[in-house]
Amino acid sequence: MAVDIWDLEAGDVVVLISGNKAEVVAPTEDGSWFLARYLEVTDPDDAWLVGTFDAVHADEVEAVLLPVSH
């Protein structure tokens, strides 16, 4: 079952298909993309991504975890 990114709010944490975890910074405005900040990465070579912001596509989201603020 796919994640409906319309339900995502700022502060929610998502797990991406890559296994990386990211916090939603700005919810979707178009139903396809949202802005997120990387919290954890699975590949040590990608450690530089932690703390950076990126646009994430709906197809990249595997699961939603508890929000950071809750």
Your description of this structure?
This protein is mainly β. The protein has strands spanning 13-16, 21-26, 33-40, 53-57, 61-65. A 5-stranded antiparallel beta sheet has the order 4-3-2-1-5, with no helix packed on it. The chain is globular, with a radius of gyration of 11 Å.
Shape: globular
Q: Identify low-pLDDT runs.
A: none
Stated plainly, the CATH topology is called SH3 type barrels
The percentage of residues in β strands lies in 35-45%
Radius of gyration: 11 Å
Helix content: under 10%
Note the gap between the termini: 24 Å
- Largest β-sheet summary: 5 strands, antiparallel
Return the domain count: 1
Counting DSSP H or I runs of 4 or more residues, the number of helices is 0
Assign the CATH architecture.
Answer: Roll
Tell me the name of the CATH class.
Answer: Mainly Beta
Task: Please provide a brief summary of the model.
This protein is an all-beta fold. Helix content is 0%, strand content 40%.
Mind sketching the topology for me?
Blueprint: E1 13-16, E2 21-26, E3 33-40, E4 53-57, E5 61-65
Jot down its keywords.
mainly beta, single chain, 5-stranded antiparallel β-sheet, SH3 type barrels, 40% strand, 70 residues, 5 strands
